[in-house]
Amino acid sequence: MTLIKTQDVLQELVMFLRNNVTDPSSRGTTTHQDYTATAAQTEFVITTNYPTNVTSVTKNAVAIAFGTDYTFNYTTKTMTLTSGATLSDEIIINYHYGDTWIYPDFPRLDLSLSSYPRISVKGLVRTNQVLGLSLDGMKTDFSFRIGVFMDNRNDVIEMIDTLVQLFWTNKKSFYYFNAIIPNSTAGPGIDPTRKNEIYIADIDFTIPIQAQD
Hints:
CATH class of the largest domain: Alpha Beta
CATH topology of the largest domain: STM4215-like
Number of strands: 12
């Protein structure tokens, strides 16, 4: 059985948000690195910066798809093609580096007001269930929560609506899972642990029934 990895799901969610939700504070920098491939080359390493998210990859000026055509390892800064390139293929990795505002964790309580707004992907939980008495398959459901942290109540409300619409519009656009469903929301409310300066709200999501052989 090929297990759906929790870390892959979490990373895809975070990168999706970083690529599709505009940072109100315009943190970080967007750039690209260009390569001319050797015959059958599969690995391309970003040598100039540490990327926070790859926004797109093109081969000979044509966009290729994450997962299907390439993957990216953020630890080694390496983009890997699923099929080797042809000699002299032009590969371009477009990416963002530097500060970001979307993280797979809960913002620290000692952050200054200038560190906001922030979005967190937190509480990713998986539930496994075997399929039938033969025990030949398993299904996995994931649930997770996105937290929005901003210093203006109306901005929080608008961001919650933006995220619900974004995920609903793209509910079947992911690689590591088949669909995603926005569920309940909570808040916004003022956070006393953040000096009563930050409003917070949460959205709960479900990634249903990922069948595995």
